[in-house]
Design goal:
alpha/beta, TIM Barrel, six-stranded parallel beta sheet, four-stranded antiparallel beta sheet, about 45% helix
Length: about 280
């Protein structure tokens, strides 16, 4: 998954505008002469997976064009405490103005990549894939899903427009599982995948009997129930497990034989990775 420079610049510019408010950093402008220069070092303070470096560097370049940047790490690199990620030399005022925006992107996205890698390593050898969800911060979905991919996870749908996912409220309004699946099959193009969410084995049997789903999501089921579900499906469709997935439960879920495990925690609950910016 690649991020476009235009998308990066647009989001970073919005973040800078939000932070600058009426247009300037009054603390830095008050304390630091306009002619002062400094060197800032981005440095890891804990182990993790680097992600979001381009957004961080863009924050500096949009604040002032007169920066000299020396990059030592790339997205996807494993970090250890003390590792130098990049060095930025230029106007001191601009360095301080961009600091928080740069670190916000870098620590947040590196945190997602790091947590995703922990989930991926936890299920090694099972054949299952770790996926993200749409539980993302508005405006940052593309970047958060990018961070999941950097951490070794897979991206679920990016929005409402790229796949059909029939959930419980769709089923309720459509009038039942058969009505929902038949309508989706009739109106969706042949290139569009159809996934449906169920939360009981009785609902799963109805999906199997209908035959129009490509993927079934088994929601909030214990591992022993998931195993029964896998046996019922008999390879007729892909099976995804979702709901309440944690780093402590993901291995047991993966060992049931599901193909995909989606975890909202990857994007909505990842702790920031501790990365500092030291100025000399």
């Amino acid at each position: 998954m690649n991020l476009s420079n235009l998308h990066i610049e647009r989001i970073v510019r919005m973040a800078l505008e939000e932070d600058l408010g009426h247009g300037h950093d009054i603390t830095s402008d008050t304390l630091i002469p306009a002619s002062e220069t400094a060197t800032a070092t981005l440095r890891a303070r804990q182990p993790g997976v680097l992600c979001g470096l381009m957004l961080a560097l863009t924050a500096f370049s949009l604040t002032d064009i007169d920066f000299d940047m020396s990059v030592h790490k790339q997205d996807g690199d494993l970090l250890e405490p003390g590792d130098v990620i990049a060095e930025i030399t230029g106007p001191a005022r601009a360095l301080l103005t961009a600091e928080r925006v740069a670190l916000n992107f870098l620590t947040h996205l590196s945190g997602i990549a790091t947590l995703t890698r922990q989930y991926v390593k936890e299920i090694e050898g099972t054949g299952a894939e770790i996926c993200d969800t749409r539980k993302t911060i508005p405006g940052l979905r593309m970047f958060q899903k990018y961070a999941v991919s950097i951490g070794g996870g897979a991206n679920h749908r990016f929005g409402l427009d790229d796949a059909i996912l029939i959930k419980d409220n769709h089923i309720a309004i459509a009038g039942g599982i058969d009505q929902a699946l038949n309508q989706a099959k009739m109106l969706a193009g042949h290139m569009v995948k159809i996934e449906i969410e169920v939360d009981t084995l009785e609902q799963l049997q109805a999906v199997i009997n209908n035959g129009n789903a490509d993927v079934v999501m088994l929601d909030n089921m214990a591992p022993e129930i998931l195993k029964q579900g896998i046996e019922m499906v008999e390879g007729r469709m892909a099976v995804e497990a979702s709901g309440g997935v944690t780093i402590d439960t993901v291995r047991a879920i993966a060992e049931t034989g599901v193909h995909y495990i989606s975890a909202g925690a990857l994007t909505h609950s990842a702790p920031a990775l501790d990365i500092g910016l030291d100025i000399s």
